[in-house]
Amino acid sequence: MHLEPLRHIALFILLVLLQVLVLNHIHLFGVATPLLYIYFILSMRRDYPRWALLVWAFALGLLTDTFQNTPGVGAASLTLLAFLRPNLLQLFITREMAEDLIPSSSSLGRLTFFYYSAIASGIFCVTFFTLEMFSFFNVVLWLQRTLGSLILTMLLVMAADSLRRKRDRKE
User: Fold this and answer.
1) By the 8 A CB rule, do 76 and 69 touch?
2) What is the pLDDT of residues 56-69, one digit of tens each?
3) How far apart are CA 82 and CA 35, in angstroms?
4) Going along the chain, which residue ranges are E strands?
5) Neighbours of 48 (CB within 10 A)
6) Are 75 and 41 a contacting pair, CB within 8 Å?
7) Nearest C-alpha neighbor of 40 from the set 148, 121, 122
8) Contact by Cβ (8 Å): 73, 37
9) Which residues contact 110 (CB under 8 A, 6 or more apart)?
10) Predicted confidence band of residue 1 (pLDDT cuts 50, 70, 90)
11) pLDDT per residue as tens digits for the range 84-135
């Protein structure tokens, strides 16, 4: 029996609950909010069907939008990230790597995974906060929110990847 769909559903539910119940209430310096739920899209295997990735991303974004009171912003940003992810991943992997590769620091290397996650998180944060503010009237606030959230998100993505690596070693 394949456990992959069950793991995706469990991770989906865990990240939504974590984001809604804990991370949405963290506003470091009044501007930075960690957006860990993007880890779900970042950690999907390389050959995952693009249409399914887009559906997962839209559902995850829409569900978190419901609790964040950001109508459509998370869904649009996460769907864009899911759309760009296969092309972004091609920048960091070689053709010789397995088709069913799951991007992580153990499969890509810590530095490569960090760069991959940072660029993907940057795309997400820029899109998210641009759509949320819907203007560049206050560029300083936009930059603070984008960069602060990017830094917090990256810290949590790397921590989640480390936890996943420890869990995979035990199995």
Assistant:
1) no
2) 999 999 999 998 88
3) 15
4) none
5) 18
6) no
7) 121
8) no
9) none
10) very low
11) 999 999 898 877 777 778 888 888 889 999 999 999 999 999 999 999 888 7
